[in-house]
């Protein structure tokens, strides 16, 4: 470790077991690096002509001597940044250097002195906490690590200690007041807070280099990792979380909430009816800002089950709660071993979405808010560690070993393949259109053309004429459902249309019909307005025949699965249709 000798302002190098008591300076760098006194400038006469020498270096050395310390550490001139190895070692050690300093001087160059006539004493604390120093990434660890910290104005007048300003700083930074009050060099006072809580301290802080938003947090989470400038902030932040996973059993690391900007329109959709989709995510947050609501999250007592990251994603045991257990909460929820502080309703749960085409028990993160699950609804009480073993019973929902996939994807945004999974035994499939895309052995229709119309013609063993099942030109919409399917009687208009449908397309110029339009169906039919095929515009849904469409996969490829069925007791209109036939 290099230190500046305060009296002569020259660099002296010490081995780890010989480091003397020292003061340390915390400040924000100038936008013009030429103004700062750098490692190469020390010992040169030119250093004294730089603005930072008179504003920071010389006053910091003077203050150190006044407080009885012969050495001071300043990041601009005590690190040889031309050496990548030294820079990496310094950044990995910086939290400890600040923590083991005897005193830390915080220089706020944008805060006036208390003696300035223009300064109103009643709002002076607000001026301090509005300093740019409180918005920078690197100064976060410089705020919480030292045991003794004093703030100084632009003229180096004493503004107060961290302890005396703790209330105002806590309101500004969301950092617990007792951490700011502490004057002992004890890393546990920082590391004892939940991972989510510590992440929330970095919300809205900024760094000049994008990767530094992750690197500046290494000391706060007591992890070390190599610096890879150029990888980008998201990859750097992912690596930071991976290192935290290796050293912590705190599941609050998963208690992030995506930023609203992630709810984006799916790109590359050709279907004109495509609506907004919500992006699926992996287990890791993209930025500390996604922990903006996590300042009051604390872990549940007890030792969580093990979890670890793999190349495919996060393998973890969670209590998985399906939507039928939570009224008014769609989707699947994974229960974490954490909760909001002083809220004893129950644990927090993260929104999940099954990814069966990726493998068994594979999920993705939906970009919904966290929810608190009422613990009275969870009969698996072992998550709370609040009862003897004999009182615990296995019930639904159950704990499962799942994977939160690293690179999830939505199924129906990627292809138009269709599998005719089943139809009634009393019906016979007599034709599938377009025939050139249909494989009767596998009952699969493969097409990447969103405009292809799919039609299946069935014949009932007891009744005639046949009926047809018609699909809209594309399934690329919010979710596949019955609104994408139309079922019709087989009459002369449909037969003539089918003759022109050999390749899956219809040409309006060859039919004397009006263009396709929107039809308002009754509430019993569809409970919504639907787009229907224009050449069947005048035909209604055929009662008595039912179709179901769902997402699925075959050998890892996304498919839509179609199942055709008959009602057990056809309604009156269907009976009328049979009798008239």
Automatic annotation (TrEMBL):
Ranges annotated as spanning the membrane: none
Pfam families: DUF8212, HET
Domain (Heterokaryon incompatibility): residue spans on this chain: 22-115
Residue ranges of every copy of the DUF8212 domain listed in the record: 235-301
InterPro entries registered for this protein in UniProt: DUF8212, HET
Database matches in PANTHER family: HET DOMAIN-CONTAINING PROTEIN
Protein name, as recorded: HET-domain-containing protein
Source organism per UniProt: Hyaloscypha bicolor E
């Amino acid at each position: 470790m290099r230190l500046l000798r305060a009296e002569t302002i020259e660099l002296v190098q010490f081995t780890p077991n010989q480091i003397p008591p020292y003061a340390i300076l915390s400040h924000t760098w100038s936008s013009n690096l030429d103004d700062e006194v750098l490692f190469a400038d020390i010992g040169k006469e030119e250093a004294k002509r730089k603005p930072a020498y008179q504003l920071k270096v010389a006053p910091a050395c003077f203050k150190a001597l006044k407080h009885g310390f012969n050495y001071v550490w300043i990041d601009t001139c005590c690190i040889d940044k031309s050496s990548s190895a030294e820079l990496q070692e310094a950044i990995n050690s910086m939290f400890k250097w600040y923590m083991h300093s005897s005193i830390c001087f915080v220089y706020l160059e944008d805060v006036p002195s208390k003696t300035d006539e223009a300064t109103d004493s009643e709002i002076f604390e607000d001026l301090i906490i509005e300093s740019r120093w409180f918005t920078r990434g690197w100064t976060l660890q410089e705020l919480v690590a030292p045991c003794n910290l004093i703030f100084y104005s632009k003229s180096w007048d004493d503004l107060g200690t961290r302890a005396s300003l703790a209330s105002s700083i806590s309101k500004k930074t969301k950092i617990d007041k007792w951490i700011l009050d502490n004057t002992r060099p004890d890393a546990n006072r920082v590391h004892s807070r939940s991972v989510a809580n510590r992440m929330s301290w970095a919300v809205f802080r900024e760094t000049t280099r994008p990767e530094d938003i992750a690197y500046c947090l290494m000391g706060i989470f007591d992890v070390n990792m190599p610096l890879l400038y150029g990888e980008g902030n998201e990859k750097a932040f992912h690596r930071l979380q991976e290192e935290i996973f290796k050293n912590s059993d705190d599941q609050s690391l998963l208690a992030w909430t995506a930023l609203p900007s992630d709810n984006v329109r799916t790109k590359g959709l050709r279907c004109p009816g495509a609506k907004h989709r919500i992006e699926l995510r992996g287990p890791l947050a993209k930025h500390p800002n996604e922990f903006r609501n996590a300042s009051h999250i604390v872990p549940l007592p007890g030792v969580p089950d093990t979890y670890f990251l793999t190349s495919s994603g996060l393998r973890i045991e969670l209590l998985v709660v399906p939507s039928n257990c939570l009224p008014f909460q769609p989707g699947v929820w994974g229960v974490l071993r954490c909760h909001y502080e002083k809220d004893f309703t129950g644990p927090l749960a993260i929104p999940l979405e099954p990814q069966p085409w990726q493998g068994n028990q594979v999920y993705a993160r939906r970009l919904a808010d966290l929810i608190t699950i009422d613990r009275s609804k969870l009969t698996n009480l072992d998550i709370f560690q609040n009862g003897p073993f004999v009182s615990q019973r296995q019930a639904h929902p159950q704990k499962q070993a799942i994977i939160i996939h690293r690179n999830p994807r939505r199924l129906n945004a990627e292809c138009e393949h269709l599998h005719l999974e089943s139809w009634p035994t009393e019906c016979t499939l007599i034709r599938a259109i377009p025939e050139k895309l249909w494989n009767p052995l596998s009952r699969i229709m493969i097409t990447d053309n969103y405009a292809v119309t799919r039609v299946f013609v069935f014949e009932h063993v007891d009744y005639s004429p046949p009926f047809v099942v018609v699909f809209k030109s594309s399934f690329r919409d919010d979710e596949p459902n019955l609104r994408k399917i139309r079922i019709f009687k087989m009459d002369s208009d449909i037969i003539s249309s089918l003759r022109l449908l050999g390749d899956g397309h219809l040409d309006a110029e060859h039919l004397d019909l009006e263009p396709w339009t929107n039809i308002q169906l009754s509430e019993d039919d569809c409970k919504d307005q639907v787009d229907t095929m224009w050449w069947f515009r005048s035909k209604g849904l055929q009662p008595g025949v039912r179709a179901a469409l769902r997402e699925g996969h075959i050998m890892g490829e996304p498919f839509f699965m179609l199942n055709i069925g008959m009602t057990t007791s056809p309604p009156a209109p269907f009976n009328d249709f049979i009798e008239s036939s």
